[in-house]
Predict the structure.
Amino acid sequence: LVELQTSNLVAAIDEGEVDLGLLATPVDTGPLHVEELAFEPFELAVQADHPLSERPSVSVSVLRELPVLLLEHGHCLHDHARAACSIAGHPAQTVVRSASLATLTQMVAAGMGVTLLPISAVGVEARAGTGVRTVAFDPPPPGRTVALVWRPTDPRHSHFARIAQVIAGRGDPREAGVDARSSGRT
């Protein structure tokens, strides 16, 4: 199990160094097979005492009025957050960038701005005691699609497709087993 920035993950799969990858789209995956799993909405992360923190939801247009903190270039979330800002008509130009979500949310807690968090990160990054709260976006929320990717020529293509179906909640877990002996790996 490895964690890589998206472009490095795509290259590692394409070169056969990694068999299967979990990533967020849209992203250029080149010749790789992409099996979409689920849409993951973003929430707006604000300082706990920010006036927006008590609202049940906000329009994406609120991003026009707020300093938006982003991850560094190279992180897929950087590109996805910039796209959400563009939808809102925000130039998404910021001088503050972070290498990690943890640092980004600490900057939000310090009142340096707001950021967008994928719903899968909210429970950790905006948990009680962090000084950060999240607010849902009005429908349709900005977000990204999570996908499983692999080389289309991989002999385990059908196994990977079944695994993707199980992860997406559309398949029987008992049918997704992959026998490591069948791939020639130990």
About this structure: Residues 178-186 have pLDDT under 50 and may be disordered.
